[in-house]
Amino acid sequence: MDIPDVEDPEFWQHDPDAALAGLRRDCPVARQPSGRFWTVARHDDIVTMSKDPAAYTSSKGVLIGDLKRTVTGTESILYVDPPRHVAMRRIVNRGFTVRRVAELTPVIERIVTGVLDAIDPARPVDAIDALCAPVPLLVIAHMLGVPAEDLPTFRMWSDAIAIAATDATDPRAMAAVDFFVYFNAKLDARQSESEPPPDLLTALTADSDLTRAEQLGFCMSLLVAGNETTRHLIAGGLVALAEHPRQRAMLVDDAALIPVAVEEMLRWITPIVAMARTTTCPVTLSGTAVGADEYLVMLYAAANRDETVFGSDADRFDVTRSPNPHLAFGIGEHFCLGAQLARLEAKIVFTEVLRRWPEYRVLDGVRMGASTLLRETAELPILFQP
């Protein structure tokens, strides 16, 4: 078969699912046309890779875009293998325990209510700017102790850093530098406070085992992972429900189904479409032998439609699907730290949107972004109250 060029951002912009299904069926472990890396398309193979960091290291890159630059482990916990990864993750886990996330419920409810109250439902709006971007941005800003006056700059940094994962340019690199300067000062301030607030910056500075570079790497990871991915989950979920009105009606009639529906949105949309590992030894996946020091890109977007796991209706959006072992948050030691937070935000958003505007309409003009990292909805015109 013709192997699709997943390194081309435009491949992901124009409905890639049919091509991904072809890979999954006919060439589950495929060398890319450029010869620079392999793709892995089946669910079971990606689970195997993710649970074996000794054979599949993160230290040489985890993004398709990392092939274009030099990777250092200080950039993010994403690039760190055990045992150091375990020690680093334990520090930040304090901010993402089930109890701590549950305690954020009233904060997120206030944020969602405020954002929705500001929308004029009788006029078309770009739901990205009106809803999908502000909610997770305000939540992660709250967790990082970012004041309201800094939020516009905070969003600009988030957008620039996320885009840089696909297309690194000098202005985007400068945005990252500005981000690091800002949070370096914030971390200094935390260390000098006698009674620092109980936010994530305090958790980072309370443990002397982290270097400043590692602390800043955590801040960047939390910004992008806590903001961009949830933004596109909400956007994609709004589209999916509008495209499947019977499924939406089920949620309108029974809001208790929404947590299960969020899991299906995660599977269906797969906000993070791919991550990578490098082999440390020869391996075999789906009968294909791959040598040591080879770059393997795990296609989560393909794995989440795998018929051997999700059944013959894997290509159908079903808000009652259970069990739903999707890989939208990864698996293994790099399982997304903020998974429970993203689920909670999405549940609150969809509960309130469907309560207020159960028949909202997605208008012409939806535009997808070109990214090798995110299933990115760039523009989403919606009339909330037709």
Could you explain how this protein is built, in words?
With 386 residues, this protein is α+β, with helices and mostly antiparallel strands. The protein has one domain (9-383): Cytochrome p450. The protein contains 17 helices and 12 strands. The strands form 4 sheets. A 5-stranded mixed sheet has the order 1-2-8-5-3, sandwiched between helices. The chain has a 3-stranded antiparallel sheet with strand order 4-12-9. A two-stranded antiparallel sheet has the order 6-7. α8 (134-144) runs antiparallel to α12 (212-243). The mean pLDDT is 90.
Looking at CATH, the homologous superfamily is: Cytochrome P450
Helices, by number, come to 17
User: Which CATH architecture is right?
Assistant: Orthogonal Bundle
Provide the number of structural domains. Answer: 1
Could you tell me the strand content as a percent range? Answer: 5-15%
Distance between the termini: 45 Å
**Mean of residue pLDDT?**
90
CATH class membership: Mainly Alpha
Helix fraction bin:
40-55%
H-E order: HHEEHEHHHEHHHHHHHHEEEEHHHEEEE
Q: Low-confidence spans: pLDDT under 50, at least 5 residues?
A: none
Question: If you consult CATH, what is the topology?
Answer: Cytochrome p450
Shape field: globular
Counted beta strands = 12
Helix and strand composition category: alpha+beta
- Main sheet properties: 5 strands, mixed
- What is the CA-atom radius of gyration, in angstroms? 20 Å
Strand order in space, largest sheet: 1-2-8-5-3
